[in-house]
Amino acid sequence: MVSKKPLSLSAFDLDHTLLSTNCSYRFGCYLCKKRILSFSSLAFIIGCHIRHTAGYLPIDKLHESAFNRLFLGRSSSLVSQWADDFLNENFDGMLYQPTIDRLKLAQEAGHLTIILSSAPDFLVKPIAKRLNVDLWNATCYRVDKDQKFCQIDKLLLGDGKAVIMDELMQKYQISKQQTYAYSDSYLDLLFLEAAGIACGVNPDRKLSRICRENNWQII
Asked: Are 41 and 69 spatial neighbours (Cβ–Cβ below 8 Å)?
């Protein structure tokens, strides 16, 4: 809940930005270690990610493959409990301190702070709570009548993050010049361009080039 009208907005991607790793992958490793997930399923997802990185598998198909293999038919409440247990054991060790410091500075300055992530909401929500951000938005899975995951309801990618940025700027009457966006991936280019001040966080090769061309800061 935002208690007063903010003058600035700071928006953060999650994986490889506020975190030094991919939380979904680390969660999968955790489930495998706990023998909840088979090693073959984890290996399948790793293979899909390699295909995506090589340009052979679109990002939406990567998420669809991961959902179908890992979460389809599983109890949403049970997965949420596993996510809490996972974060209790691993959260502090996953933080990327340079970006966490930026978040803390933004919070101290009274910015409206938000996490925008393509990770599933059962991971993003508790992370947002731990980091004390004002808002969060993430990929959502739909549940059936038995409260079991049945399909991807919303996949939050760079274009969707940009829309949310624009909506927040309009809602709180924040100028573009007072908005900040942080991400590691060129897939978030529209999100970064929606802000007045963009920052690449350990950016991938494509985003690193774009940062240099636009004189965007890199941390």
From this structure: yes
The distance of Cα 172 from the centroid of its chain, to the nearest Å, equals: 23
How many separate domains does the chain show?
1
Question: Mapping DSSP to helix (H, G, I), strand (E, B) and coil, where does residue 115 land?
Answer: strand
> Which residues constitute the domain of residue 100?
9-218
Q: Say which CATH number the domain at 125 has.
A: 3.40.50.1000
pTM of this prediction? 0.94
In a domain, 200, yes or no: yes
Distance (Å) of CA 60 to CA 41, 90, 156? 18, 27, 10
**Distance from chain centroid for Cα 89:** 19
Distances (CA, A) of 134 to 112, 117, 191: 6, 14, 18
78-109 pLDDT tens trace: 999 999 999 999 999 999 999 999 999 999 99
21 phi-psi bin (left φ>0, alpha ψ -120 to 50, beta other): beta
